[in-house]
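Hi Y.,

Following your request, here is the sequence exactly as I used it, all 156 residues.
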Amino acid sequence: MYINKAILYGNLTRDPELRSLPSGIAVCSFSVATNRVWKDKNGAKQESTDFHNIVVFGRQAETVNQYLKKGSGVYVEGRIQTRSWDDKTSGEKKYRTEIVADRVQFGPKSGSGGGSAPSSAQAADAPKGKGKPEPKENLATIEYPEEDINPEDIPF
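Below is the corresponding structure, written out as tokens. Let me know if you'd prefer a different format.
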């Protein structure tokens, strides 16, 4: 049995680019940055960033192009593929390794305050019952488009 599976969570490094194949199928390409942080032998913090080229097809490509932009968080599942072609100007063979996405899920909306529910430890420290209720902090919310949503347009 062979497995070719890539799973990433990162941020877009550029706005998605939407094109169409001659058959009319939509193709969207974008790049995702992932970070890795570790401590070296001396205990100093080290950081490394990797950049991944992503390609997505069909209705999902149109959705990615519509809702994602540079800096957006995204979760991608797919397969790794390397393409090759002959460069028209130099005549040399070129290669590009990319992830062909089967699933793309949008991360939290960028720019939101990142509000979250209090942890169980915070809830245990909160006074119970007596006194005025604490004002609730603003939680991140999903903003839906103004137009009607067609269930057939939902990519999952």
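Residues 112-129 have pLDDT under 50 and may be disordered.

Thanks again,
Q.
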